[in-house]
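Q: How would the structure tokens look for this protein?
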Amino acid sequence: MEKNIPYIQVEDITKAFGKVIANNNVNLTVYGGEIHSLLGENGAGKSTLVNMLSGVYTPDSGSIYIHGKKINFTSPKDAINSGIGMIYQHFKLVDNMSAEENMIIGQNTGIFVNKKKIRNKLFDICSKYGIDIDLKKKICNMSVGEKQIVEILKVLYRGADILILDEPTTVFTPQEAEKLFNIMFKMKENGCAIIFISHKMDEVMKVSDRITILRKGETIETVNKYETSPEKLAELMVGKQVNLSIKRSKIDMGEEIIKVNNLTVKNEEAIEVIKGVTFNIHRGEVLGIAGIAGSGQKEICEAITGIQAIEQGEIIFQGENIVGKTPREIIKKGVSMSFVPEDRLGMGLVGAMDMVDNLLLKSYHNEKGVLLNKKPTAKRAKEIKENLSILTPDIHYPIKNLSGGNIQKILLGRELDSNPNLLIMAYPVRGLDINTCYTIYNLIDDERKKGVAILYIGEDLDALMQLCDRILVICDGKITGELKASEATKEKIGLLMGGKSEEREESSVV
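A: Here is the predicted structure in token form.
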């Protein structure tokens, strides 16, 4: 079948920020009735490219054609007027307004608003694309998935026939992701062009017609979905073969390391964010926690590590209740806990410092005497740099100038260097390239074999099921279920993430 004029034609686009070339002679062709995925590691140039398509950036050179017409966007409004709808990870919605009201704001409707006409148009769009949403519901009362659908409805209402979705399912339940994919398929049926950016390989393989791979700011290849595989795509992204299997060694679990009993935590507004949570972890066990972002995962980590005040409950670590002790007191008790936080530079490391000084932050209080001896720490820094393949000009180079993946590896290397009994990891692979993800997954397995107890909080349900022995599911501060990883499915976890049912007792008995 002969193709029509492409909806999007990008020819030899180049964009630099100072000395950093983000896009170098990038080419991309997207047709109507096509879902076209963009794949690439962090820093490959995906976001820069779509920001030029949506009018946020202007190319330094090259050409962009929309529906066969050469364009020069100077603002996002120009892109909207050309039929391009960009759906960002951070929603641009007014929380205290309804979905319907969010459609109206920003439109040139004059003094009088014909609500009936607007409502009819919205109903027609919903019917055409299979969108099921309560238009009168306020945004603040919606789930993340519902908000995403409102964003899509908003751009369709404005006449978009080109949709760009940047990592849309990062904090979705599998059920919410499925709803989004069904809308995308309907849009494809109706002739829309969709650019889909995701780091989740299974999603890319599920929804795509064609896939364009970017590496180091350049177009590597465009492939048809049915002529490729996740392994081949990973190889094109990284530039070398990548092993996409997660190791989980069979080992006998040891003694109970930590027991959390009836943990309750309140936030600054005195609202309960953790509500009577109970769980335990043994030596050599990886316990996963799954949940929609903001369900209480962060507060559990911070409560165990002494950062967060506890309303009630107890945390028994190796036989001793550590509630009420400061992080320093916990360390002095000989409790060895390693915490890889969500915010790498905000909580974990000091950006202006180098590797050596960041390692010292964890261990300087163990030094005897007034003066610090940096030589042993410098030696350890070199070993960590080698073992984890950290790309830095030097161990004395400020870490803020490094990529997210390298910063994450420094943090992880430092935490593992303290030989922990319990390793707490909150989103350790968030935003990291595929190669670094699997390096970290393998490190987790190595720690299990040493008898370390691991609490792992992640967003990728496939990785959770492969890495963990058991999975706790949390929703709105409560444990809604506990599943053996061997018996878990994405559908079961997704229902529990949405607070659907209480399965903990059943799964524990199985």
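The CA atoms of residues 20 and 409 lie 23 Å apart.

The chain is about 35% helix and 25% strand.

Upvote if useful.
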